[in-house]
Amino acid sequence: MKLLIADDDPQLVRALRITLAAHGYEIVAAADGAAAITAAAQSRPDIILLDLGMPRLDGIQVIQAVRGWTNAPIIVISGRTGSADKVAALDAGADDFVTKPFQVDELLARLRALSRRAGARSSESSVHFGDVVVDLAAKAVTRGGSRVHLTPTEWRMLEHLSRNPGALVTRQDLLKEIWGSEQVSDSGYLRLYMSQLRKKLEAHPSAPVHLLTESGMGYRLVV
Fold this sequence. Notes:
Blueprint (H helix, E strand, L loop, with lengths): L1 E5 L3 H13 L3 E5 L2 H11 L3 E4 L8 H8 L7 E5 L4 H10 L3 E4 L4 H19 L3 E4 L2 E4 L4 E4 L2 E2 L4 H11 L5 E3 H9 L9 H13 L9 E4 L3 E4 L2
Parallel strand pairs: 1-2, 1-3, 3-4, 4-5
Antiparallel strand pairs: 6-7, 7-8, 8-9, 10-12, 11-12
Helix pairs in contact: 2-3, 6-8
């Protein structure tokens, strides 16, 4: 699998190149935003690791540029910890956000999750978590072998999460997917439907392990 690492910190790029190559990844590197766009166009990476604070073009501009022609998952790696920066990156088209400093094991787990997501988008017709099976083709859900009844809105929410397993799905994405407009005000509807899904699909709804909330940003389905 080919990774593009776009970061202006040479020591971090060197460390990631060594570590990720040891795990079987092919690495392409870029030291600024303009070079990142060129490298993405030429090498067609499977996943992009991207810093926000780069010279020439910042990370948000890079995301907006490459999203015009590729759906490759993008993980933002940044020292910026504010929720506004995270939301801006996710709204621009990033798939996940890792804050510096980070553990390599965490990054590897995120990479595996996004790899599964890309595979699920292209080939998988069902998603499994716990004792739940989400059949995307048949639009059906079973738990422990028994059919689970979902309302149309609950299904659309679960379906969108299931088509992006392991990835952070923003509230804006869900609102657009369910109600057709990212301008719709949340007003607690997403929390309500997520609560209902947890009651139907989690072993312990008050302590979910699969249908997770990312505070201030959105939701994640852990399979």
